[in-house]
Amino acid sequence: MWDKVIEFIKAHQSFLLTTHIHPEGDAIGSEMALKAFLKSRGKHTCVVNSSETPRNCEFLDPKSEIMVYPDTFRPDVVDQSDGFIILDVNGWIHLGRFAEVIQNSTKPRVCIDHHQGFENDFVDILVSDTSASATGVLVYELIKEMGGDITPQIAEAIYASIVADTGTFRFTNTDARTFQIAAELYENGADPFRIHRNIFANRSWGAARLMGPVLNTIESAADGKVVWIRVTKEMFEQAGAVYEDSDGILELVRAIKGVELCLFFKQTEKGPIKVSVRSNGLVDAYRIARLHGGGGHRMASGLNVDGPMEQAIEKVVQTCLEAPELKDR
Asked: Which domain holds residue 271?
């Protein structure tokens, strides 16, 4: 699985790493773990993302080395790199504005990812394993395959990626492979308490103020099996909150008894409405997302849909209600 990626790394000296828009623990953790490993091999790396690092992942980049395109981006880093390594994303649309830079470059592209589906023209070398609970798991396995050491810095970054994508080992993507890797990460310096506090106990006052108004928008259909909430630009402003402050609210809805599928419609400053789709196992969230050009996993996916908000909700909810899994119930 790793032969072509290892050959690519050995053949080049400088790499540019990137991930999807609105990155979270798996994206940032995978980037910083791979960056640290490549540095230990004498390689030069830069990380450039289309979105800012969320507050709860800043501890993984203590020196603020991650560049944000175009705000803190330096064009020379592309000229100086030998190729791109794209992590935790498998299509152009989810890369954001930086995708155009990569598309305009003739330099080779590698992708390491664990989501379902991928675009055929996306990269030159693809490692995709949908059975991996996180992209960080794949980065760990690449490092081990190349005989690398799991340093405390790498252990922390990969552990963060795993707990972020498994919901601290609660989601159905958690398996024996995940626990075995987590155990080695702990033995090599990962601090579960510190990592959990940073990722899951790092809410701002704006996030706290946003929670009530968002939960008050809750609506349901199909006898409570399909539930959705929304957040608008005005709600963000009134709460003194930013986009990332909406993270985690959907999990409260997902925990309601009888809910099989829940959605979070998020209005952004520019562009389409972003929709998070979460399943409790009965309905395939990935299939719902794909019908609207999105992607992800069976249990957790995302998509973009044009507004206005009411029209967007009606369109996506109708797709959910037509899910064969619900019609059989």
From this structure: 205-327
